[in-house]
Structure formats: structure tokens, C-alpha cells
Design brief:
Length: 347
């Protein structure tokens, strides 16, 4: 099947830098796209051609509505669209707008999924009271959770945001830090502050922190509390002990939602096999209201070099040199949610 699509004004951003978006559609959908002076010609299977036509139509509709995603964001959205026939460009843009609630509380930017797993993660947070985001560094686990927390508060679904992180050093002993109690724990909580200030107007964040509408605290401060009507995020959960994880999970009160994020390949505890996150993954599978989302190296949204670094370390782990201790329902070891064949024991 072959069709001709009209070249409308300001259509060029859809093509991408050096036509990278057109090549993405060609490779993923099995079509041929020829850009001519009079029209864009699309040839291939009828269903695939229809999906390309829908992408062009959605882009034109978004442009007329004043929605103009920048090239990197548009490319990420298109990767989701071509990967799933049920996903549309307009649907992604509408979901992004709904989640971000731009302007409601000084929000600086819209946040959208940049991979299939990120999309599933955002949906899981919306639908479940407790969501675990497990995967390598740079996959947006914490950033997206903070963005969803800000959106929930803008929509008045919760009245406060509580950001929690265990105070565990990454393989170093920093000794006694100077200053007040808050100044001592702030260095451990800096990634959470970074996400807040990147998403929201700094003056607005400072005001909400001062009024305790947003609370950033070490995990040790959670014992004995009941956290109601709040969006609670625990970052670096791989560095909790079994007791700490149980304590945190049982803080959830009425009208609250919790997101727990962590990377089981970066455990800084003296005994990595005692990680509360590892045990929670094994114990809480199948519990109603809890969903686990696993990220992979392809979900990394930092520098492309980070993906290659993670692949190198994961290759080492799969050779049995970095055992993670997570098993599936059949007793097979899991690496980032993927079953790994057990290595044979030497005779």
C-alpha cells in the first residue's frame, strides 16, 4: 500500500534531526518513507501505513493546539508510539499535560515517559497505592516519582509530599558532619532536592519546604509515624535493612500513596544479601495494591555512555561474580526482573 501525506506548515520538527524520526518509523513499522517536495510518500503494509498516517495527523492536531514538544521529547514519544499500536502521539501528549498540571503550583516543565517501561511505571503509580521502581541508575525512577507527587498535589489528591532516603554512604565513611541535624542529613537527600528544584519554581519549593508541605527526611525519622493524605517516596531503598523496609511500608495511612525506588546492583550495606528491597521483592509479589516495575539499560535517559557502562556491569553480574539474591516464583535467580540461568557448580 502506498499513500501521499500532505506537507503542512511547520511539519519539519516531526522529521527529527537528520530525519531520525522518519528512520525510526521506517525501522520499527517496516515502511518506506520518501520525503519529496510535494508530499511525504509512505509505502508498506496497510496497518503500518495507517499508523504512520495517524502519527502525522496527531502531530498536526497537537501543533494546532499549541503543543510543540522539543526534538528529544518528540523522539522519545515516537519510540513509545511505534512500540505499541494502542499508544498514540496525541494520547501521550494529553497524559503528559494531565499529569504535569503546569502552572498549578509553579511547575516549570512537563514530564513524559521516554521509554515503554517508564510509561508502565507512570501508569502503575496512578493505579496503585504502592509501587516499586527497581532498576539501574539514570532510568528516571526517582525523577518520575517526584513529578507524579507534584502532579498529585497540584490536583489536590494529596495535601503533602514526603521524600525519604536512608542515610547510607556509598562505600565511604564521611565521619561526623558539622552543623545542625538537618544540615547533617541534607547531603544524603540532595538528589531529592535536585528533582524538586528541576521540576518546580525554586521559590515555590522553598516556601513549601518551610511550611512542611514538602518534607524531606532520613528514613530513621519515620518510626512511629502514620503518614496520611500524603505522597511518600523512598529513594535508594536497596540500602534499607529488612527491619527498616518493614517499618517504612507500614507507615502508609489513609489517602496516601507510596513509591519505593532502588537499584539492587548498588547496595552499600555491609551485607548486601540483607537488603530490605531484595526481600520485599521476594515477599510482596502478588500482593493486591502493590506493583513492581523493573527498568533495564535501554531505559537510561542520561548520557548514552551510561547505558554502555550499565551493560558492562550487568554482563559481569550474569557471569555470577555479582550475585543479587533475588528469585522468581520457581526459585530461579532474577537480575533486574529478568530470569538468569543458574551457573553450574564446579565438580
Amino acid at each position: 500500500m502506498k499513500i501521499a501525506l500532505e506537507i503542512t506548515p511547520n511539519l519539519e520538527p516531526l522529521f527529527g534531526t537528520r530525519d531520525e524520526n522518519l528512520r525510526l518509523m521506517e525501522d520499527a513499522l517496516g515502511v518506506r518513507i520518501d520525503l519529496r517536495s510535494d508530499a511525504v510518500y509512505v509505502q508498506g503494509p496497510e496497518e503500518s501505513v495507517g499508523r504512520v498516517k495517524r502519527i502525522f495527523a496527531d502531530f498536526e492536531a497537537l501543533r494546532k493546539a499549541g503543543v510543540n514538544p522539543h526534538n528529544g521529547e518528540l523522539h522519545s514519544m515516537l519510540k513509545l508510539v511505534v512500540a505499541d499500536s494502542a499508544t498514540t502521539l496525541k494520547g501521550l501528549a494529553d497524559a503528559t499535560k494531565q499529569r504535569s498540571a503546569v502552572g498549578a503550583a509553579g511547575v516549570k516543565r512537563q514530564v513524559s515517559a521516554r521509554s515503554v517501561n517508564q510509561g508502565k511505571y507512570l501508569e502503575a503509580i496512578e493505579k496503585n497505592d504502592m509501587t516499586f521502581g527497581v532498576g539501574p541508575a539514570g532510568t528516571g525512577k526517582t525523577y518520575l516519582a517526584v513529578a507524579m507527587a507534584v502532579a498529585a498535589m497540584n490536583a489536590k489528591k494529596v495535601s503533602r509530599i514526603i521524600l525519604v532516603r536512608p542515610a547510607v554512604e556509598a562505600g565511604e565513611r564521611l565521619g561526623f558532619l558539622p552543623g545542625s541535624l538537618q544540615e547533617k542529613v541534607d547531603p544524603y537527600l540532595r538528589p531529592l532536592y535536585d528533582a524538586l528544584y528541576d521540576l518546580c519554581d525554586p521559590a515555590k519549593v522553598d516556601a513549601m519546604l518551610e511550611k512542611n508541605i514538602i518534607e524531606v527526611a532520613p528514613l530513621a525519622f519515620m518510626r512511629g509515624r502514620t503518614l496520611s493524605d500524603a505522597f511518600i517516596i523512598m529513594d535508594e531503598a536497596q540500602n534499607t535493612t529488612t527491619e527498616q523496609m518493614k517499618m517504612f511500608l507500614t507507615r502508609l495511612g489513609q489517602g496516601s500513596k507510596a513509591v519505593i525506588t532502588g537499584d539492587i546492583t548498588q547496595i552499600d550495606l555491609p551485607n548486601p544479601k540483607k537488603s530490605g528491597l531484595v526481600e520485599a521483592i521476594n515477599l510482596l509479589k502478588g500482593v493486591e495494591g502493590i506493583q513492581f516495575c523493573h527498568f533495564e539499560d535501554v531505559d537510561v535517559v542520561r548520557h548514552s555512555l551510561v547505558q554502555r557502562i550499565i551493560r558492562a556491569y550487568e554482563g559481569k553480574a550474569q557471569q555470577g561474580e555479582l550475585p543479587l539474591g533475588i528469585v522468581d516464583e520457581h526459585g530461579a535467580q532474577l537480575e533486574q526482573g529478568v530470569r538468569v540461568k543458574p551457573t553450574s557448580k564446579p565438580q
